[in-house]
Design goal:
about 240 residues, mainly beta, globular
């Protein structure tokens, strides 16, 4: 099971990278009735931001075979019967998300429905984590040559966990991901080796601790479709 989850995590990280370079798919220009032509990445996300404010959202990226993003003509996406809004990345790729703050609760079933052009609907389901993830302790300032200890609470065992360090400044934008080993997830503590920070020297970064729990994507979609629940906490750090 853990090996299966790690494979899916790799797909998620690949999708994150592709979102920086993709564009609008040709499938967006005509009616789309065949779900096997798209491979959705569907996410329920509950996040405490740097100011401790809680935000919830649902996001849907619909990928074609060339990893371009699809909008469904005369169709759309909804979560528990609430319609998602169509938006566009800076690259021009379309995606769907809830507008404003959407309440995400613990241990709750969420169904994300993709509606095709002809009105046919395809449901994917996930149950959110039983425990909240509300505390993430990381030094506010540290050197890129330091190995640092981070801790978190509550402890969410048996789910994939990683830390994403992202930045955006005059020099550009970027991110790195640090996987939390399986045997550290349940302890609530992990020491991040210093070699992860080499490219982040001199950066103000958003450190985001993420716990991800996978659900069941609709079997009619193209291989690679997934739905997951992400609980996350963000802290801002200065890496010298």
């Amino acid at each position: 099971m853990q090996k299966y989850i790690k494979v899916l995590l790799g797909i998620v990280l690949l999708a994150s990278t592709l979102m920086l370079t993709n564009c609008d798919s040709p499938l967006s220009d005509e009616p789309l009735n065949d779900p096997s032509k798209i491979s959705p990445t569907l996410t329920i996300e509950r996040t405490y931001d740097n100011s401790k404010a809680l935000k919830g959202e649902a996001i849907a990226y619909l990928w074609d075979k060339n990893f371009n993003l699809v909008k469904i003509k005369d169709g759309g996406v909804s979560v528990n019967s609430t319609a998602l809004t169509l938006g566009y990345l800076i690259t021009g790729g379309p995606y769907y998300e809830t507008s404003g703050d959407y309440e995400i609760n613990q241990y709750t079933n969420y169904t994300i429905t993709v509606e095709m052009s002809n009105g046919d609907t395809y449901d994917s389901q996930v149950r959110t984590q039983f425990q909240d993830l509300h505390t993430f302790n990381i030094p506010a300032t540290f050197s890129h040559t330091d190995s640092i200890q981070v801790t978190w609470a509550d402890i969410i065992i048996d789910h994939s966990m990683w830390i994403e360090f992202s930045y955006g400044d005059d020099s550009g934008a970027g991110f790195i991901n640090v996987d939390v080993p399986e045997d550290s997830v349940g302890t609530g503590s992990f020491t991040i080796p210093s070699d992860n920070f080499t490219t982040l020297a001199g950066k103000t970064v958003q450190a985001k601790l993420v716990s991800e729990k996978f659900g069941t994507a609709n079997e009619h979609f193209k291989t690679g479709a997934l739905i997951s629940s992400k609980f996350a906490v963000i802290q801002e750090c200065q890496i010298n």
